[in-house]
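queue> holo job accepted (histidyl-adenosine monophosphate)
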Amino acid sequence: MTESASGDAEQAGLPGSPFKAPTGTRDILPPESARWVAFVSLFAEHAARAGYGLIHSPMFEEIGVFRRMGEGTDVVRKEMYDFLDKGNRHLALRPEGTASVVRAFVQHRPPTPWKTWYVTPSFRYERPQAGRYRQHHQVGVEAIGSADPDLDVEVIALLSDFYAALGLRQVELVINSMGTPADRRAYVDRLRSFLVGRLGDLAPEDREKVEAHPMRVLDSKRVQTVAAVADAPSILDDLSDQAVDHFERVRSGLDRIGIRYRVEPRLVRGLDYYTHTTFEFRSGALDAAQNTIGGGGRYDGLVEALGGPPTPGIGFGSGIERVLLTCDAEGVFDVPPVGIDVFVVDVTGGEHARAITLELRRAGIRADRGFDRRSMKSQMKSADRSGAAWAVIIGDDEAATGTVILRDLRGEQGQERLARTELLDRLHKLL
Ligand code: HAM
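queue> job finished
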């Protein structure tokens, strides 16, 4: 359905045209959601092992928090979901994770280095397509308060190891340096002059960016522009000694721990706050248009831009949807088997099912039951569908004699009748 068509249907509120999730968003339902749980726990484990603590901050901020990231990017200029609240405050839903973490750092001034990780929805009003959503989800880290190039290496290694732990193999790391803020400014001027000389060769949609946001032209995926900027000046030729030294130390750190990378002088990334190291992980298993599964870099001026003291920082964000698409494409990190261990079928009214499921759950066994006083046949069908290995069946005879029937739903061990009081012990042995 087109965007306007779904909008019309919503306005009409027509009976018979049920609501759908908004354009560019998805429902994550079971059993797929079990994969998300596993994904986030694996990430949490990797982050915790490296000394990063979880941060939760509000999903919306004063719009200025995001504007301070720099107005040179589409993310800030065009794609934010901003609104006035009932108190007339201008707020925006977070388009990414870094700015809020930096705002929280400035507000709370924790001891440095301050190492945090997050999992968060992010909202960008983009044109939806495979791997690009209006609400996507990121896991990420931010490490604030150290300019040590070894921290860059740590952050990159964390993400690289996480992808490896998922089982991904076709992932390429590309890195670049944006230099110091002064290096970056000098480069922008040089690039602008170059682009002004090539204006006619650029795709028409990219020409308007040359004056105010020349770096965005390098991001362009339009074939005409890509060809026209093939010999654009490289930022690496313009770096100060300090930036060259930083970059060399990051590279040698990566070399020493055996993390392979390619230096890509055109890598400018889509956000304005980057200084020094920038990096992206690209998947060879995804379509080139949306193949960046994670990216990040240093932002040594952002804390100051948000009202804090000059403080360096570095981090990354990685899109959960895109990484999972990559897992699908590589056939790794499957949806984990979900389900329960035991299904309780009670055809005497439900009293026994209530008591037994509770007892089993409290003992750590995953148990479910039928509701609505359904027939034996219907409850057995639910038991099969639940994926449970065992059914506990209570009919009138069992209720009268204080027994239960334990049936192997996989058919290997048949069924047995046992005293109700022995059930837990027996299940503990079987599971
Ligand atoms: P980003 O490159 O804009 O960086 O986004 C990070 C990742 O989020 C991307 O690599 C991609 O996997 C995913 N992503 C972004 N937009 C979408 C979308 N519309 N649909 C699906 N996935 C998407 C940042 O957000 C920075 N905050 C990263 C960072 C942290 N830099 C320093 N610290």
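queue> The mean pLDDT is 94.
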